Structure formats: C-alpha cells, structure tokens
Amino acid sequence: MSSTNAHRSELGEFLRARRGELSPRQVGLPETGAVRRVPGLRREEVAQLAMISTDYYTRLEQGRMQASAQVLNTIARVLQLNDDQRDYLFELAGKDTARPRRRARQKVQPPLQRLLDELVTVPAIVMGRRQEVLAWNPLASALLTDFSRIPANKRNYIRMVFTDPATRTLYDDWETVARTCVAHLRMEAADSPDDPQLTALVGELSVQDDQFRQWWGAHHVASRGMGTKTMHHPVVGDLTLDWNALTSATDPGQQLITWTAEAGSPSHDGLRILASWSAQHRQAAHDPVD
C-alpha cells in the first residue's frame, strides 16, 4: 500500500474513532431514545453539523475524497478535536497544519464613537466583521436591547437574532431579518474562510438552531446596505424604520448602522417618544435614592 493510501486509510479510521467517542447530546443533537447499532455519532450526523453532504463525508472516511482545509477545520470543530488531534487530521489529509491566526478584537473607531455620541434622536450601533456590536448609543439600547447587560464576548447581533426570544418578537418579519443576517455572515465567511472565531460562531448557532443550520447550508450571500424593518416595540408600539449601513473608511470591517423614519410619520413620532422615555429612565437610574 502506498503512503498516500495508508494515510487515507488511517484518516478514515481516525475519523470513525473520534465520532465514536461523541454522543448526540454532546454536540447538541436531540436524543431519540432509539438503540444505536454502534456507539457515537452516525456519519449523517457529522455531515449535517459540518454542512456537507453525507455522501461527501462518507467518501472522505473511505479514503475516496480529499477535503479542503476549510472542510477539515469544520470537521475538527464538529468532532471537538483538540489542537494535537486537529494537527494529526491535517497531516493525514496532506494539508498544511498551520492554525489560522486569531484576529485581534475589533475596537470601535474614534470617529464612529464621536458620531454615535452626537446621535441623540437616531438609534445607531457600530457592527464589526462577524456582526459583533462594538458600540451603541442609548436610543439603540432602548430600541433593541440593553447591550451593556450582554457580556462583551457574546455581544453579537446575529446571536441575539437567533437566541434572544425578545428579539424574535420585536421584528414583524423575523424570518427575513434572520435570513438576511445569515447571508451577511456568509459573505464575511467568503472573505475570511479560515477565521476561527467566525467558525466557532457558526458552529454554536448551527447546534442551537435548526433554521440557522438550514439557511447557512443554502449558501446565500448578501452585502449590508439598506432596507426597511417593521418592529413591534413594547413601549411605543409599531415602528416602520429605514436602516442604513455606513462603512468606516479607516476600517472597512466596521459599519455604522442607523434606524430612521420619515419626518412627521407615526414612526418618527414614536422614535421621539422612545428617546424621551429612554432619557427619563437613564436620569432615574442616576438620581440618588432618598
């Protein structure tokens, strides 16, 4: 047997052994209660979580397919491999084992922060590459959620859309909002296919939400530009707002997202009422208690 064939055979055995060590519960899949003929995950379950076809994964295990580094990274995440196991997987597959470098955490650009501070009647946030919420103004918190209560490493718009029940009821057409977020994230994945933080975010949401997993697998892409959203706000009622994304010239990975309404419209009046309500609540929070 040639060394290439030997490596492919070992690769299949290695993958079978690793999936045999995991239960559906460990990767976020529901337990059906049915007796399994063999322990661990089935091939189709690994393929489902890795967003590839069962046939593709089967041929990979059987040594009849060469996988890309991106697919290997995803399989390593699904099988919860440690660094040494991941390196071994790449060696068997004949791929460079160099690990993707983690990007430094983005910080809001000072000009965008100053602009946020000046926007007192317009809800606005600064969004990063992976839809991280890097900064926000008080009216955005009043409109969307209190971002300060979310840990910085979890402060992510698409995570909020899929995992926060209040956000699901906020949007009149939640599905379109969610699908658009997935398409935006897909576009970023195309630009940064080896970004480990993005891969981890996709893995997290794929395990937690069936719709995310389905829409991510559809491979639709879109750039962030402008649109209109209708919201059912618990304080001021229904709002129909135009949103716009302005890209930072100094860091194209940051965008200022604003929500506005036509002057004189009921939604414009609603934003003004919400701004007043927000200011009163902030003042009350800072007033000394007798």
Question: What report would you give on this structure?
Answer:
The chain contains 13 helices and five strands. Strand 3 (226-233) and strand 4 (237-247) form a beta hairpin. The protein has a five-stranded antiparallel beta sheet with strand order 2-1-5-4-3. It has 290 residues and is an alpha+beta fold. Helices cover 49% and strands 11% of the residues. The protein has helices spanning 3-20, 43-50, 54-61, 69-78, 83-92, 110-118, 138-143, 157-163, 165-170, 174-191, 196-208, 210-217, 266-286, and strands spanning 124-127, 133-136, 226-233, 237-247, 255-260. Helix 4 runs antiparallel to helix 5 and helix 8 (157-163) runs antiparallel to helix 10. The chain folds into two domains: 3-92, lambda repressor-like DNA-binding domains (434 Repressor (Amino-terminal Domain), Orthogonal Bundle); 110-286, Beta-Lactamase (2-Layer Sandwich). The chain is elongated, with a radius of gyration of 23 Å. The relative contact order is 0.11.
Compact summary:
By secondary structure, the chain is of the alpha+beta class. Helices cover 49% and strands 11% of the residues. It is elongated and about 70 Å long.
